[in-house]
Amino acid sequence: MAEAMLLGRVPIPRQQIYRMRGELPPEEAAVDYERELKAFFKDQPRLDVILLGIGDNGHTASLFPGLTAVHEQQRWVVAEYVAEVDMWRLTLTPAVINLAREVIFLVSGAAKASMLRQVLEGPFAPDERPAQIVRPSPGEVTWLVDAAAAAKLTPPTG
Question: Using one digit for the tens of pLDDT, what is the confidence trace for 55-77?
């Protein structure tokens, strides 16, 4: 989908695109992608931009509620089986995401409104709302939210 909707439409040299090889066994794919990232970045994986969304369960990337990847600080990429969706998922870990210069969340639709409020206004509980673990330092987070998703947020005062 990323190829069809974005990467195939912009003039990015193919050698600058690093994809997770989901056709490999999950753990092998995670190790393979981490190896690629380490070969490119050497010390720290400082990505310029990471584009994320949130699920109505508070997951982001493939960091799902109650799973260990939410707290991973050593590995850059992990594979976890997600019973909720009955499949293996590969994900960058917070160790990588939180080094990004810019993280942009795109959130749309009324189905996300309750969770968006919990993520942005609720207590810090990343085991329940993994999107809360995204706190890049010294990077920035930008939220692009449509009216339906923002409907339950507390309006600003003043």
Answer: 999 999 999 999 999 999 999 99
Plot region of 47 (φ>0 → left; ψ -120 to 50 → alpha; else → beta): beta
- CB within 8 Å of 76: residues ≥ 6 apart: 34, 37, 38, 45, 92, 93, 95, 96
- Are β-strands 102-107 and 140-145 bridged in parallel, bridged antiparallel, or unpaired? parallel
How many H-runs (helices) and E-runs (strands) does the chain carry? Answer: 5, 5
What's the whole-model pTM score?
Answer: 0.91
CA distance 153 to 110: 12
- Tens of pLDDT, residues 103-119: 999 999 999 999 999 99
**Range 34-39, long-range pairs (CB < 8 A, 24+ positions):** 34/75, 34/76, 34/77, 37/76, 37/77, 37/96, 38/76
Contact 69, 93 (CB under 8 A): yes
d(CA 102, CA 47): 8
134 burial level (CB within 10 Å; 0-12, 13-18, 19+) = buried
